[in-house]
Write a structure and sequence with these properties.
Layout: H1 10-17, E1 23-26, H2 36-43, E2 51-58, E3 62-69, H3 76-82, E4 88-90, H4 93-100, E5 118-121, E6 130-133, E7 139-143, H5 145-152, E8 155-157
Parallel strand pairs: 3-5, 5-8
Antiparallel strand pairs: 1-7, 2-3, 2-4, 6-7
């Protein structure tokens, strides 16, 4: 029987084009629990190295993405300050797909419909490797934080509580 080939996501193709080394990790999806904590449990990836991507709206600059540790909570005041806004709020889940092309549990800081600004929590640089969504539920990319920052043209800042 032929082995099923994993189709590369847009995120993986972007990294390939930039010559960035990464590892694609797959895991079974539980539609009832899409949390980063659950992903860490089923993959064995330490929660501190598993980063989630949140879609945020600033009152001045509009949409941006915040990449924070899986077990952390976004500090909206800190995210607003880092992104040049007075206020920021989470985008409603109903809007995420239309804005990014990604569904909850599969949102990546790379390859969205539009090139939104990306802000990574400063803790990201403490790790040799981190994992972010590959742009599809059930797939994570493991790569060096500096490579993600370069690929996403991200800014690091304090973003969590």
């Amino acid at each position: 029987m032929a082995k099923k080939k994993i189709q590369k996501t847009n995120v993986a193709r972007i990294l390939d084009r930039l010559g960035i080394s990464y590892e694609l990790l797959t895991y079974p999806v539980d539609e009832s629990d899409l949390s980063a904590i659950h992903v860490a449990e089923v993959t064995g990836i330490p929660l501190a190295q598993l980063y989630k991507t949140l879609v945020v709206r600033g009152d001045r600059t509009g949409i941006f993405m915040a990449v924070i540790p899986g077990g952390a909570e976004l500090d909206l005041k800190a995210a607003a300050a880092a992104s040049g806004n007075k206020r920021a709020e989470m985008v409603h889940l109903k809007e995420v797909f239309d804005l990014t092309g990604y569904v909850r549990g599969g949102c990546s800081p790379l390859g969205a419909k539009k090139p939104y600004p990306v802000y990574c929590d400063e803790s990201i640089v403490q790790h040799a490797r981190i994992c972010v969504s590959a742009g599809r539920r059930g797939e994570q990319l493991a790569l060096a934080p500096s490579d993600l920052i370069r690929a996403a043209q991200a800014v690091t800042a304090h973003l969590i509580r």
